[in-house]
Here is the input.
Amino acid sequence: MQILMVEGVFLILLIVITLSIILNRDLLATVVMFCAFSFCASLLYLIMGAPDVAFTEAVIGVVSTVFFVILLRSVDRWCKK
Amino acid sequence: MKRRFGGMILDCAFRIMIPFMVLYGLYVLLHGEHTPGGGFQAGGMIAIAIVCVRLILGTQSNLRDLGAKAALWAGVGTFIYLLTGLVCVLRGGNFLEYEYLPFFFQEAAQYHKAGIMLIETGVTVCVAATIVNILDAVIERVDEDDSDD
Amino acid sequence: MKKLCVALIILATVICCSFAGALPQIGSHVAGPNIYLSRYYIMNGEEETGSKNLVTAVLADYRGFDTLCETTVLFLAGLTTAVILYKRTREERDVPRDQEKRRRKR
Here is the structure.
């Protein structure tokens, strides 16, 4: 299977974003990184030639980020290590 | 989340933006056969419009009845989908066989187009109502946790 | 324990990356499931369903039953979330307020 270079860049960016989600202590920053993850996944779907899936991923990324930010009000913003 | 948020700027801005959001959602639904789009995407767009209204106006304003019984509308959307399948069975075909719909078209492809449009409408209503339903539950729970402290 | 988990993750990544070369190209028309069915959809999709967007034609016409089950699962997921997050007023709970706060802080 061959990967384009643009695809490879975005895949490595996905891994970096995932590591930053796991190893972060600020929950608001984690929620923003979730949105960035969804955005990178949407671009990847677009590069692979699936515009319907990219559209859906963008919409659902926005909706899920809004939900997480609302839920963050009842949880402490800083979690322990 | 009970009070209005944002003062006058957001109040004027969202009244201009919300009709465009709903219009774009309907455009994506109706052009699902020619451009990338379809039911799920349109449902998400309309749900984003309703979420915007809820967040800006607060939960105790007059417009909160927009989607007050969101669980009911989600069931209505699934039922529309089922109804097109059952109508085909009642008129003698298999489940979701679009040639047996009660319209009067000349070609077989037009029956398929009508069937696809009905199905996508059902999916749109279901997805939008589900997202608004989850948002309502989350906001009520967050308000309850806030008022406990 | 943590080092064991990290080592397992790295091992799984190395194994998956070494087998990635054997997968077919994305969108190739001679790969496994694409030989017969994709060809039928591309040839006959537009004239049978009347829609130029083949994704919608496959989702809503050829695989309409799967979309029905997917919509039902979405509806049930929304209902379940609303049931789990259901708000109860304090009279319906049997615990008085200071005992409840003590139980939550523990």
About this structure: Chain B touches chain C at residues 32-39, 71, 74-75, 77-78, 81-82, 85, 95-96, 98, 107-110, 112-113, 115-116, 119-120, 122-123, 126-127, 129-131, 133-134, 136-138, 140-141, 143-144 (CB under 8 Å). The mean pLDDT of chain B is 87. Residues 7-148 of chain B form one domain. The longest helix of chain B spans residues 108-148.
